[in-house]
Amino acid sequence: MRTRFRIPPMSAPVAAGPADALAIAAEIRQGRRNAVSFVTAAIAAIEVRDTRVNSVTRIFGPRAVAEAEKIDRRIAAGEDPGPLAGVPFGVKDLFDVEGEVTTAGSVVLREARPAVQDATVIARLRAAGAIPLASLNMDEFAYGFATDNAHYGITRNPHDPARLAGGSSGGSAAAVAAGFLPFTLGSDTNGSIRVPASLCGVWGLKPTFGTVPREGAYPFAASLDVVGPFAGTLADLRVVHEAMNGAPMPALPVLSDLRVARLGGWFAENVSAPLAAAIDAVAGHLGHLPVVELPEVARARAASFLITAAEGGMLHLPRLRRRALQYDPATRDRLIAGALLPAATVLQAHRFRAWFREQIHAAFRTADVLIAPATVGEAPLIDQPTIVVDGQAVSARANLGLYTQPLSLAGVPILSVPLLGTGGLPLGLQLIAAPGGEPALFAVAAALEAAGVAGKVPLPKGR
């Protein structure tokens, strides 16, 4: 299903060069490498290596090369194209890219008209000098935690292709983890940035609800959806977020001035032994952390599920009436079930949401940042897609959001921190702050990165 772009023959192979966005931009701005060489090297890497991962659905080859040539001309003329000059990036296939069809991971939209303009965040990134290179695989209409797509195939984890990459932004996380692209864009409704970032061992940010514009991003559940970045380094994540947000982040607070606490109860249950040990190591670097317990977390997860199902179902109901058989059956059945939910049930879920939001905000009276696991442990195997919850093997596709779904209700910013497990596979931690608390999240994350307990998880040799 992928649209291929063939690179013109070159007299000599082009080195991949730096893997992080800021280093790429520095080389281009200083004239040590041109933007075209980075773009063509990224395309070559995807064409050769993505057959094992399946993170990319389309390559915007001719357009990306043309944009890189413009960047190079601006550099030659003495202009500064921006902080992300010439950096190639990928977008989850629910963002509008001018001239391209936005499929949202479904063949249902394949015959739609091409987008007439870029999504707002893509326009902002282009203004900062970055170059959209590819669209990335996802669960159909963002409904799932596995990136197991009936139309475009399953995205595999670059750390072990026998394992899931997570979802629904699995292609976005996998493309960064594999080293194809320094940063990518995703969306998060119930954990669709945090889950794949955790399983693939990269940084991911779910910004404060409503702060980063969603115009030009295909919706799932409008009262929960946010858009955000993945990156291989924390510094890249910050500069990309600033470009998407349209403003620089305020100065980061001093770590010693921040109160950090650990979520217990629901967030301490079902955690794998390697992840529990990794979180203990994080806590050891941050000092003695008090434990905070949120009430009624199971009900919060159920409320998030109901709201998502109802909003997604009602959004798709007109099209389902006409073209239901074109949907992935698993997606179709869940959307239909959501559309059939009684209004009284959905109203009750929203009322509970308001109450639970108050409980989370109350926790920030005594803590500036909360830490919690992102998933129960390592990425599940594709041929055994289950996780263990309360001693029972349950569907990974439905339950990987065990720790992310409840927190989505509050609209708070959450940074997914990559940790290395004892078995060599990635693990993930959530850093949570009150609305607008992104600077506190980055301050804690920077301390963990400096201490060597957090950072992009390296691929095994040979991958």
From TrEMBL:
Residues in Amidase domain copies: 39-441
GO MF terms held by the record: transferase activity
InterPro entries registered for this protein in UniProt: Amidase, Amidase_dom, AS_sf, Carboxybiuret_hydro_AtzE
Record keywords, A-Z: Transferase
SUPFAM superfamilies: Amidase signature (AS) enzymes
Source organism, top-level taxon: Bacteria
Entries under Gene3D superfamilies matching the protein: Amidase signature (AS) domain (3.90.1300.10)
Residues spanning the signal sequence: none
PANTHER family (alphabetical): GLUTAMYL-TRNA(GLN) AMIDOTRANSFERASE, TRANSAMIDASE
Name used for this protein in its record: Putative glutamyl-tRNA(Gln) amidotransferase subunit A
Native source organism of the sequence: Gluconacetobacter diazotrophicus (strain ATCC 49037 / DSM 5601 / CCUG 37298 / CIP 103539 / LMG 7603 / PAl5)
Gene label: gatA
